[in-house]
Amino acid sequence: MDIVLPKGLEVFIFGSFLYKLNPNDLDMLVIYDLEFISSSEVSIKCKECIFLLSKYFTLKVDVIFLTIDENKGSGFVEKVHAITPRRCAKFKEINFITPNF
Question: In the chain, fewer beta carbons within 10 Å around the N or the C end?
């Protein structure tokens, strides 16, 4: 399955989904670049992606949205040990397509 992401977005996966056989949900972090997408439109732009992942995994998808600067300031990716979907075996049949910057 291919999922097209808008320019300026990067997706990470974290939480129990990474290590539990039967997780309760899928925790997803979306880091976005304010140069390409505003904070008021980022959740709308991700709606299809969230829907497709929820349907594919039959799980609720919980999403946290952070700007690049918010992530740098908080160190969220490092704190929660978030990884890109391509590094997660459960995502082997999902291809995230992002436009070139």
Answer: C
Q: Are 10 and 31 in contact (CB under 8 A)?
A: yes
The structural domains of the chain, ordered by start, are 2-97 (3.30.460)
Residues 2-36 as b/e (b if ≥16 CB within 10 A, e otherwise) read ebebbebbbbbbbbebbeeeebeebbbbbbbeeee
Euclidean distance between CA atoms 82 and 15, whole angstroms: 8
pLDDT tens digit sequence for 16-72:
999 999 999 999 999 999 999 999 999 999 999 999 999 999 999 999 999 999 999
Alpha-carbon distance 61 to 82, whole Å?
Answer: 15
> Which sign, positive or negative, has the C-alpha torsion 82, 69, 11, 63?
positive
Q: pTM value?
A: 0.91
Contact 47, 3 (CB under 8 A): no
